[in-house]
Amino acid sequence: MRIDIEDLRVAYAGRTVVAGAHLVAAEGEITGLVGPNGSGKSTLLRTVYRHLRPAAGRVLLAGTDIRELSSARSARHVAALPQERGTDFELTVREVVAMGRTPYKRAFAGEDATDRDVVARALADVGMDGQAGRRFTALSGGERQRVLLARAFAQGPDVLVLDEPTNHLDIRHQVELLALLRGRHRTALVSLHDLNAAASVCDRLHVLHAGTVIASGPPREVLTPPLLAEVFGVRAAVVDHPLTGDPLIAFDHRTPAQPKQEVPSWR
Ligand SMILES: Nc1ncnc2c1ncn2[C@@H]1O[C@H](COP(=O)(O)OP(=O)(O)OP(=O)(O)O)[C@@H](O)[C@H]1O
């Protein structure tokens, strides 16, 4: 299912932080949202999974304004890994993942065989099937994250909205998660700080800067040295990854960019 974000404006206590954002997350593609700290990525994603109501503009799911859907119906279509990773569940790992089945249940209905299969598969997908009986609160940050991702998978959504899904994960689990996402061929809207991961895994990127989308397109077209200097304030060369051929951003970790001296060719 495709997502269209049209002229989205979101404010906290009267302060606008998303200021007329437009973007499309195409059906079956991984769409990445990148941008510096505070540029509005989480805020934009929160409106897509209906945690926040926009001040203006719309989020369309396959052409329908998500505000017109019931919460159960929207939860069957859109599942989120929010940045707030809820640490207060007094539940086991398996119980947390089984919460993903709630949108399919009548009140007080128990689990059926499909629920059990879906939950087992979701736990296996994130490599937590051996830890299903552990208490969620006893897990490490990365383990919790994988469990919450399994909960989103168990929701069986058409669209996954993932806010920084690789935060806290060691490099192997980052690679596994991103490979899992690619393998699912499901519409995903994902914010990522790791621009190299974004360049490898995303079909299209949108760059958010001060609450507006200032560049969109395939990673190789978007992540150019002038944009990296102007928007992220870093010097970098973009080369071909020697193993995959994906764009590889080689950052200069010694010296920040001087944005005013760069030519912003992405405008
Ligand atoms: N609950 C809130 N109340 C008030 N202001 C907020 C709230 N959440 C975020 N903001 C502000 O909105 C702006 C955008 O924040 P947001 O978290 O959307 O950015 P982000 O691009 O996801 O940042 P980061 O990369 O640091 O996670 C920031 O200035 C932030 O301080």
Automatic annotation (TrEMBL):
The lineage of its organism: Bacteria, Bacillati, Actinomycetota, Actinomycetes, Kitasatosporales. Pfam families: ABC_tran. This is ABC transporter ATP-binding protein. Residues 3-235 form the ABC transporter domain. Keywords: ATP-binding, Nucleotide-binding, Transport. GO terms for molecular function: ATP binding; ATP hydrolysis activity. InterPro entries: AAA+_ATPase, ABC_transporter-like_ATP-bd, ABC_transporter-like_CS, P-loop_NTPase. It comes from Streptomyces filipinensis.
